[in-house]
Amino acid sequence: MKDKSVGVIGASGQIGRHLCAALIARGWKVIPFSRSVREDGGFCWRRWSGEEEIDLEGLTSVINLSGEAIDQRWTKKRKDLFRKSRVDLTSKLSRAIVNSDVKVLLNASATGIYGDRGDESLPESASTGRSYLAELCRDWENAVELPQNVRTVFLRTGVVLGKDSRAWRKMSKIFKWGIGGKLGNGRQWMPWIHLDDEVEGIVFCLENEIEGPVNLVAPESVRNAQFTKAVGKAIKRVTPFAAPAFGLKLLLGDFAKEGLLASARVVPQVLLDAGYEFKYPTIEKAMFEIVAN
After folding, report:
1. Which of 28, 113, 123, 231 has its CA 20 to 30 A from that of 134?
2. pLDDT digits (tens, 9 = 90+) for 171-213
3. H or E segment at 19?
């Protein structure tokens, strides 16, 4: 692509900040978007809250990472925010792209689209699930309605792990307190990815002719018990405790059932077939980097 100009919606978030830096290093002109006017980072920020019209002038590509954090108790109010920040915002963005010069859209999604599938292998060609989270992700992707000349990628992301990632900040405290352990019976498959591979995977999708859903997960699948053991070993803490399923459901409601206890053995088939080389293919290698000073 001759004109390497890309807008990043959700640029102030965990993934967005790292992504903007990686894109600049690759020679891209980056225009970050935020809900409020910003001047930090040396960027020319544009404001977009999702309510007003978005300014896509001068952009040939857009990466949309917006979405209210899902790792919290799912109240009625929060479910409304989940939909508004995903489905409604993506629908508005899609309509704006139709009347712009944008020819590539990378839109966030999640591995929750597959639902609770036990030991079934789940490449991008697998069917979607039937849970609330699966339906939300499906509506999120279906909110993109663009002509065929706009290349579209759906970034189905798993749990993102990195030194400053939201997921790691939460779980590392629990493990360092010595109360970390497997969730439920620990047999559920947990789709995860290192932050560096999340960012580089997105850049790879942008710079290559990839279309459709892409599973942004590490190639090595792990069960929750294996993940727990790897974390404990990396931070030199024993993991003797197990959080019972009924307790998690009581505390976190549907998020526990569909987020923490659901099993999804997700495979990054599209990235592997396209030749992407993962920097952190195993949980052990990822954890070693994350805990290193």
Report:
1. 231
2. 666 565 454 566 778 889 999 999 999 999 999 999 999 999 9
3. helix 14-25
Q: Name the nearest CA neighbour of 14 among 189, 159, 217, 220.
A: 159
Q: How many domains does the chain have?
A: 1
Q: Buried b / exposed e across 232-252, counting CB within 10 Å, b at 16+? A: bebeebebeebbebeebbeeb
Considering only residues 282 and 179, tell me which one the structure prediction assigns the higher pLDDT.
282
Domain of residue 193 covers: 5-291
Mean pLDDT of 4-18: 93
CATH number at residue 38: 3.40.50.720
